[in-house]
Input
Amino acid sequence: SPRLVRLEPTVGANALFVDEEELAALGGDVDALARRFRLVCVKRGRERATAYLDGVMQERTPPERATGMHAFGGGDAFAGALLASLLLGRDVGDALERACAAGARTIAGT
Output
């Protein structure tokens, strides 16, 4: 089992992006994390992503399956697109859909 990670260094943060392995290292309780952070996003590889914003959960799959050989930058593109979309006033479902697409495009190299 993964070693549990302490959350004290995140004091003051209001967003948390994790993959499934990182979620497990944080204890695996998404509901507890969603009470602590305004935005929690769980990236589930190339399959899908789940976001919790102010207690509302949305899940999306990439519109096209990422087929690239590497994932370098995919998570950064995902996070940037999600945050930018939310700042532009899009709802969490639309923002998550755009984030999935951005991550997939980055992995595909397009």
User: Anything to note?
Assistant: The two ends are 36 Å apart (CA to CA). The CA atoms of residues 20 and 73 lie 17 Å apart. The mean pLDDT is 86. Strands lie at 15-19, 39-44, 48-53, 56-60.
